[in-house]
Amino acid sequence: MHPEQVVEQVRETLSKDVPRELAYEAARRTWQEWIRNRAADLKDADLRILFGHFEFQGVRYASTAPPEVVPNDFTFTPDMIPDAVDLVVFGHIHMHQTVGGKIVYAGAPERIDWGERLDPKGFLAIRPEGGWSFVELPARPMDKVEAVVGMGDNVTEKVLAAIPVQVSGHLVRIEVTLPDELRNRLDEKRLADRLRDAFHYEVKFVSASRPRVVTEEFTLDPGRLLTDYVDKVLADHPKREAIKVEARRVLKEALS
To answer: How many other C-beta atoms are found inside a 10 Å radius of the C-beta of residue 84?
Structure first.
């Protein structure tokens, strides 16, 4: 049962709205009891593995980001996993990692956004005795190219000179820092010709005249897209953080 279903059951049983965190506590107790009972049912099994698609307390979303705690978001906690469970294998988080010893995320087999640019990708090989190993796969290369252009520089030549020689099949992100008045000096046709063999490329202009990013970062992750949208549209709203929490909840319900 999805945690959101438990939330709705709690509200229906009590015939009133309850704080989401209290409902999530009920969901955690429900899951804890189910896992414990199921592990007991399988007491004669050689190996007991719990598979799931949830966020575990203390996970990291990418090697470039610290561990995140999202207020009012459902997470599994260590006390929900009994000793009888030998291994926990979860999905949902794109970064391969271990949490608390026997909890492991396989991670996504391919890179999704630029925060994962340096993360290894692969799958888990689980052995009959309960051991496991991470088998790395060749993930699509992601090249981050930076070019700083001054008033006396040729914008196109500067950008082309910064691009690596080998870009065939790569995702390429070019970040160009330059004065605002030079933005239209980039020869997009020459750039497209240079990157014709790339899997995908994008250009991000950063103003050297004022601290402002004039295009958006590329990502395919719906949660990050939603967060970025709220930050942009409701930047000065006093309840922006609360709106983001509720928006993430609605998104999770829609995608579940």
So the answer is: 14
Candidates 208, 250, 209; CA nearest to 229 is 250
pLDDT in tens, 38-90: 999 999 999 999 999 888 888 887 665 555 445 556 788 889 999 999 999 99
Helix orientation angle between 3-14 and 240-255, rounded to the nearest 10 degrees: 110
Q: Under the phi-then-psi rule, with left for phi > 0, alpha for psi from -120 to 50, and beta for the rest, what region is 130?
A: left
> Alpha-carbon torsion 240, 242, 246, 248, what sign?
positive
- What single DSSP character describes residue 46? S
Tokens 């082309």 sit at which residue?
Answer: 160
Considering the entire predicted model, what is its pTM?
A: 0.65
Residue with structure tokens 């939603």?
226
Q: How far apart are CA 75 and CA 3, in angstroms?
A: 9
Q: Which amino acid is at 235?
A: A
Sign of the four-CA dihedral 62, 67, 71, 74: positive
> Domain spanning 3-139 has what CATH number?
3.60.21.10
Cβ 143 vs Cβ 167: under 8 Å:
yes
Closest among 146, 147, 140, 159 to 199, alpha carbons compared:
140
Query: Which among 211, 96, 102, 206 is positioned nearest to 149, based on CA atoms?
Result: 206
Tens of pLDDT along 93-104?
888 999 888 999
Could you tell me where in the chain the CATH 3.60.21.10 domains are found? 3-139
- What is the DSSP secondary structure assignment for residue 202, as one 8-state letter? E
Report CA-CA distances (Å) from 15 to 5, 9, 12, 26, 35: 15, 10, 5, 15, 28
